[in-house]
């Protein structure tokens, strides 16, 4: 019996079957939520490396699998051909946002290069530039192809004429982008003349393209945590910026945008004009309100504030002044964490009406909001819920 087992283990069919089983188990293990969250780079590298090998192993494993493998190859080729239509390389800038660990990319676009199907809150995949400036090697091109990260489009390309991407610096590609931003800043004559580089983007993608018409709701509650505002802010701007509502007699929805950040400087990218000039923020309308919660204590805020941070707070009306006119023109800042229960209950203060709740932030924030909104759903209220994934 043992001799039969040894002989079978020398058989090509058995060997390739075991190799295929090992590859499947290894890829599935690294895809577990805990491991993927702890080290996304390992998950990504394992799948990029092993996924193309598995079909080859199965192809030679047994002959009756080959029909399915050819189907996989056909679907893959079709997918790559489709994706290639959404890939473009544009000149853009990469910079650091002062007083934070955030990086920002600005990519100007000509009006004829902006697809008409782009929607607020979608994301694109960004590839790092090749390291060899003159003639990139094959190794550089492979790195550029696989060193991609998803970034939510924080702007409205059709209105702004540019793609703005904001991300927090962590490990991997964002760390490399931060180093690149510092290098470009050192080459610049001043902060306004940062050298442009070639940035390759693919997209846009995302479930936000299937969002309902939020203007048809009576109350829209938008919650963001940290860089989760890159999803929420464009959605907010698209609702507030609507030039007309479904019908002249229809009332515009009440909109509340609540944004939680660690430091006041983290809102700098969202209010660039107010941050740079100290002027008032763009009027968001009497039916919309923006609240910024700074979780650091007040002393830490003042001690860590860089040039323009406190002026920005006054310029965009982030601090309560008791003036209703000033409040309409900008945002309010409150120190501490938001009372999500009170905020959600306020959205359902009216006994009737449709309510839309959109959230993008840390997992704990999303889960708590889901539970609070679920209580009103169980009471029979008409609710639209959308939680945008915050990282992986």
TrEMBL record:
Subcellular location: Cell membrane
Domain FAD-binding FR-type, residue spans: 65-211
Entry GO terms, CC: plasma membrane
EC number: 1.16.1.9
Top-rank lineage group of the source organism: Eukaryota
Entry keyword set: Cell membrane, Electron transport, Membrane, Oxidoreductase, Transmembrane, Transmembrane helix, Transport
Protein name as annotated: ferric-chelate reductase (NADPH)
Species of provenance: Coniosporium apollinis (strain CBS 100218)
Pfam families the record matches: FAD_binding_8, NAD_binding_6
């Amino acid at each position: 019996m043992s001799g039969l087992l040894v002989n079978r283990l020398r058989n090509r069919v058995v060997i390739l079957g075991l190799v295929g089983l090992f590859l499947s188990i290894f890829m599935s293990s690294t895809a577990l939520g805990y491991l993927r969250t702890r080290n996304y780079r390992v998950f990504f590298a394992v799948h990029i490396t092993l996924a193309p090998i598995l079909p080859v192993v199965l192809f030679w494993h047994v002959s009756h699998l080959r029909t399915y493998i050819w189907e996989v190859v056909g679907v893959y080729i079709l997918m790559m051909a489709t994706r290639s239509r959404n890939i473009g390389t544009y000149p853009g800038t990469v910079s650091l946002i002062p007083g934070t660990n955030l990086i920002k990319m600005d990519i100007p676009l000509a009006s004829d290069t902006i697809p008409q199907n782009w929607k607020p809150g979608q994301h694109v995949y960004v590839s790092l530039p090749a390291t060899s400036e003159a003639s990139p090697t094959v190794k550089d091109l492979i790195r550029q192809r696989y060193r991609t990260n998803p970034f939510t489009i924080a702007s409205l390309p059709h209105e702004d004429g540019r793609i703005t991407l904001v991300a927090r610096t962590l490990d991997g590609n964002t760390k490399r982008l931060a180093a690149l931003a510092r290098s470009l800043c050192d080459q610049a004559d001043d902060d306004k003349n940062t050298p442009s580089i070639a940035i390759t983007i693919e997209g846009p993608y995302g479930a936000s393209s299937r969002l309902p018409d939020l203007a048809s709701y009576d109350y829209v509650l938008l919650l963001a945590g940290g860089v989760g505002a890159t999803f929420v802010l464009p959605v907010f701007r698209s609702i507030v910026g609507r030039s007309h509502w479904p019908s002249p007699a229809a009332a515009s929805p009440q909109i509340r945008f609540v944004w939680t950040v660690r430091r006041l400087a983290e809102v700098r990218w969202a209010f660039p004009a107010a941050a740079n000039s100290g002027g008032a923020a763009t009027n968001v309308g009497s039916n919309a309100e923006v609240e910024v919660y700074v979780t650091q204590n007040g002393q830490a805020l003042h001690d860590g504030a860089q040039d323009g941070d406190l002026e920005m707070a006054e310029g965009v009306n982030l601090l309560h002044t008791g003036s209703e006119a000033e409040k309409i023109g900008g945002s309010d800042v409150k120190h501490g964490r938001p009372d999500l229960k009170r905020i959600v209950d306020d959205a359902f203060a009216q006994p009737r009406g449709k309510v839309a709740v959109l959230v993008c932030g840390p997992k704990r924030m999303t889960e708590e909001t889901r539970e609070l909104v679920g209580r009103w759903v169980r009471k029979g209220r008409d609710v639209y819920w959308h939680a945008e994934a915050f990282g992986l």
